[in-house]
Design brief:
- By secondary structure, this protein is an alpha/beta fold.
- The chain has 3 domains: 18-180 and 487-542, Quinone Oxidoreductase, Chain A, domain 1, CATH 3.90.180; 194-330, 3-Layer(aba) Sandwich (Rossmann fold); 345-433, 3-Layer(aba) Sandwich (Rossmann fold).
- It contains 17 helices and 26 strands.
- The strands form 6 sheets. Strands 3, 4, 5, 8, 9, 24, 25 and 26 form an 8-stranded mixed beta sheet that branches. A 6-stranded parallel beta sheet has the order 12-11-10-13-14-16, sandwiched between helices. The chain has a 6-stranded parallel beta sheet with strand order 19-18-17-20-21-23, sandwiched between helices.
- Helix 11 links the parallel strand 20 and strand 21 (446-454).
- Helix 3 (165-179) packs across helix 13 and helix 8 runs parallel beside helix 9.
């Protein structure tokens, strides 16, 4: 193979007869590989509709840990017998096309470099790469319609310019981070959906619904005033069906929802002047996948509401509201923002982990981003690494960066915020650790028009208590995202090529193929503050933190950037030494 790192399309080397793979045969790291080692497999020739790809780099992700922990019980494996039908982890992958099946030669060519979007759907069923489809912890594999002809076409993106192998692999987690601040929620009633409007039985306010009444195909009305029922009848679209129900109490909501929707839940629920937190909580349980609740009230609830934090993250359940009698005023992007407030104060909880670092870096580098960033982590080591990476970047961008370790402080976070920023509440809170109590506590730190982002997912059914009054009285945002799209990843590649961002800042450790299981163990033990990158084509490189490279491998370490930043030049030196045998 040519060892000129920038000439990615040169493939004049002899393809091995076999590939080494870390296949997964069950739950637990002990079931990855055979006897603690990768195993040899035949490479095979591509069919007419397949590519043979070389795996150049793989980022290890904490989502892999969930797969390793649950094995066949992971929801994306659908009960698969891994002992006879193994999979492979590794969904953050950078690939090079080696051979092209005859039916694909108008689209792909040998030497073409690809980043992969693993969140694949086939016939609207999740068949993610690194889960249902065996992932990247191998040297070579065949790739066909399961990736190249799924619901959204091909789930691969060309790696443009001189973007390195590590950076290309990391465009996927970076796309997930960036996607957390793009509008994923539905902010209007669903077209042809099923809506449920619930009154409180004694409220006779003159509500209006000047737009959107033409959207649903069916509207159920419960406990609403006769005047409102007549208003809906007079203003609905001709084809919209109106169904009046018997009066019901909150404890009746679940049975009614099952009967009316077959257990799917309502696409839209409108609550008019709810009298209790229980009424809101029971109605919220009846929201459909990607459903929306609109709370319309000018009167505060006396108690916090129990809501499902997992569904906000995984199901994109949406909560909007208004204190006006015009129901439609709750909807729309103008009222419901999704990005961090310009020149505001943003708090990142669990900021020292790999994904937390990415969120903080994005906020610091973002044009029109927050003016003050507070980053918390209970690991002194991780927080120190974060400060080392982010503080110079923040200073260069005119952003105030404030790290805080709540486990080591003699002051609580809210008092610390007051002390450092002059306010005990912030504009935005991003929770980067899957902890329900942290999510619940974080909601208390927001301004009435703040935004709470659940980036880390807790299981569906995880209930937290939230003061919902600011949702309808003050425009509070509760958001969460899971995964990314092809377009999200394309945006990250474009930003990387244009030098607007650098995914390499996230790299904390590297290793060759044999180090993959050590890398998984290190990730599970949180040994490194940033991302671990495995280079499957490299043999003989143990897992090593970037800070140790200069001592052990000076020809590589000398090419690192400030604060041991991974660079394209360091990656070239790595390839020169280990891949090319120099």
């Amino acid at each position: 193979m040519s060892c000129s790192f920038k000439k990615y399309t040169q493939l004049n080397y002899e393809l091995p007869k076999k590939t080494l793979s870390w296949n997964m045969y069950g739950a637990g790291t002990e079931n990855i590989g055979r006897d603690g080692e990768p195993e040899e497999e035949e490479i095979g020739e591509p069919r007419a509709d397949q590519l043979l790809v070389r795996v150049d780099a793989v980022g290890l992700c904490f989502s892999d840990v969930k797969l390793i922990k649950f094995g066949k019980d992971h929801p994306k494996l659908y009960g698969r017998n891994l002992s006879t039908n193994p999979t492979r982890v590794g969904h953050e992958a950078s690939l090079t096309v080696i051979k092209v099946g005859k039916d694909l030669r108008d689209t792909y060519f040998p030497g073409q470099r690809l980043a992969l979007q693993p969140d694949i759907y086939k016939n609207q069923i999740s068949t993610a790469y690194g889960y249902t489809i065996p992932g990247g912890l191998t040297q070579y594999h065949l790739m066909g319609p399961e990736v190249l002809d799924a619901d959204h076409g091909a789930y691969v993106i060309q790696a443009k310019g001189d973007i390195g192998y590590a950076a290309a692999a990391l465009t996927e987690p970076w796309a997930c981070v960036d996607a957390a601040y793009t509008q994923r929620r539905r902010l209007a009633p669903k077209t042809d959906g099923v809506m449920w409007i619930i009154g409180n039985g004694s409220d006779a306010s003159a509500y209006t619904f000047s737009t959107y009444l033409q959207h649903p195909k069916k509207i159920y009305l419960s406990n609403t005033a006769e005047s409102f029922q007549q208003y809906i009848q007079d203003n609905k679209a001709e084809n919209v069906q109106i169904i009046l129900t018997q009066p019901m109490k909150p404890e009746d909501y679940a049975a009614f929802s099952d009967s009316a929707t077959g257990g799917d839940g309502f696409d839209d629920i409108v609550l008019l002047a709810p009298l209790s937190a229980l009424a809101v909580a029971e109605a919220a349980k009846q929201i459909a996948f990607r459903g929306l609740m609109n709370i319309v009230s000018g009167k505060a609830l006396k108690e916090k509401v129990a809501i499902d934090a997992g569904r906000i993250h995984y199901h994109y359940t949406t909560y909007v509201g208004t204190n006006k009698a015009e129901i439609a005023s709750a909807y729309g992007e103008e009222r419901n923002r999704c990005n961090l407030r310009e020149n505001g104060t943003a708090l990142f909880v669990g900021a020292g982990g790999p994904m937390g670092q990415m969120h903080v870096q994005r906020a610091v580098e973002k044009k029109g981003g927050p003016g003050t960033i507070v980053a918390t982590d209970i690991s002194a080591g991780r927080l120190a690494v974060l400060e080392e990476i982010i503080a110079p970047l923040a200073e260069a961008n005119g952003v105030t960066f404030i790290p805080f370790n709540p486990a080591a402080a003699d002051i609580d976070l809210q008092d610390f915020l007051e002390q450092e920023t002059g306010s005990a509440v912030v504009d935005d809170v991003v929770v980067c650790v899957p902890a329900a109590k942290l999510m619940e506590d974080s909601a208390m730190l927001l301004k009435p028009d703040g935004m709470l982002v659940f980036f880390a997912g807790v299981p569906n059914g995880t209930s937290i208590l939230v003061n919902m009054n600011p949702v309808f009285l003050g425009n509070l945002q509760l958001t969460g995202t899971s995964g990314s799209t092809l377009r999200d990843q394309e945006v990250i590649i474009e930003k990387t090529v244009c030098k607007e961002m650098d995914p390499n800042r996230s790299v904390a450790a590297i290793g060759g193929l044999e180090a993959a299981r050590d890398g998984i163990d290190a990730m599970m033990a949180a040994e490194f503050a940033g991302k671990i990158l495995i280079f499957p084509q490299i043999s003989g490189l143990p897992l090593i933190g970037l800070k140790d490279l200069k001592e052990k491998y000076p020809t590589i370490g000398d090419k690192l950037g400030p604060n041991n930043l991974w660079t394209v030049e360091a990656e070239q030196a790595l390839i020169q030494k280990f891949w090319c045998g120099v």
